[in-house]
From TrEMBL:
Signal peptide per UniProt: 1-20
Pfam families: Gly-zipper_Omp (PF13488), OmpA (PF00691)
Keyword field: Cell outer membrane, Lipoprotein, Membrane, Signal
Organism listed in the record: Pseudosulfitobacter pseudonitzschiae
Subcellular location: Cell outer membrane
Domain OmpA-like intervals: 105-222
GO cellular component: cell outer membrane
Name recorded for this polypeptide: Putative lipoprotein YiaD
Cited PANTHER family: LIPOPROTEIN YIAD-RELATED (PTHR30329:SF21), STATOR ELEMENT OF FLAGELLAR MOTOR COMPLEX (PTHR30329)
SUPFAM superfamilies: OmpA-like
Chief localisation class: membrane
Length: 222
């Protein structure tokens, strides 16, 4: 085995071994680690960087390319993870307890139940939730290096075509509040998914309530 192959194998095996112990959004089984996504981002970035560095290098330099790629990738991945961890912590402090925040390590998903956002069959954002959306908008402006997807969802009650239209209108309504609070139009994409992407059963009231939601997905540009 040549030095190049040993270098590539060492980098990849080290990253894969550490990543294998990591669940999405946590490291070493500790979901309370405030730096969990900084660490997992560094690991994922190192593995990806090693592969890319080896791929773009000449045969004789693949070992060095893998090592350089791993270092650069780890830095980028750690930076993304750190930013998401910090933004998540700030949002948790500023948002209503009914708002759910999910940090997957490569994005933040802010889930707002539609029952607190809108009246039944309405797409007018409740006044009481506008302050939470203003807080999200302020966070987005403090962390400008991301794009934002606003995605509306419904339960399966009623006509599917109507649900699709309602989910689109609600996504647009939330997007409009973000725009009014200073988030640039170029960063926001609005989608309606109707009843097509449930997260729970539609066979009972509890599940239906979970499916009626608007997700604000924050995607780092790095």
């Amino acid at each position: 085995m040549t030095f190049s192959k040993i270098s590539i194998a060492a980098v990849l095996m080290g990253s894969m071994a550490l990543t294998a112990c990591t669940q999405p959004g946590q490291l070493g089984g500790n979901p309370n680690d405030p730096n969990r996504n900084t660490k997992s981002g560094a690991l994922a970035g190192a593995a990806a960087g090693a592969l890319l560095g080896a791929a773009v290098s000449d045969d004789g330099d693949r070992g060095d390319g893998a090592l350089i790629g791993a270092v650069l990738g780890a830095g980028v991945g750690a930076g993304v993870g750190y930013s998401l961890d910090k933004q998540e912590a700030e949002l948790r402090q500023s948002l209503d307890s009914n708002v759910q925040i999910t940090n997957t390590g490569d994005r933040l998903i802010v889930t707002m139940p539609q029952d607190i956002l809108f009246a039944t069959d309405s797409f007018a954002v409740r006044q009481t939730l506008r302050s939470d959306l203003a807080s999200v908008a302020a966070s987005l402006q403090r962390y400008p290096g991301s794009t934002v997807q606003v995605i509306g969802h419904t339960d399966s009650d009623g006509d599917a075509a109507y649900n699709q239209q309602l989910s689109e209108r609600r996504a647009n309504a939330v997007s409009e509040v973000l725009l009014q609070n200073g988030v640039p139009y170029s960063r926001i994409q609005a989608f309606g998914r109707g009843e097509s992407q449930p997260v729970a059963t539609n066979l009972n009231a509890t599940g239906k309530a979970q499916n009626r939601r608007v997700d604000i997905v924050i995607l780092p540009n790095a």
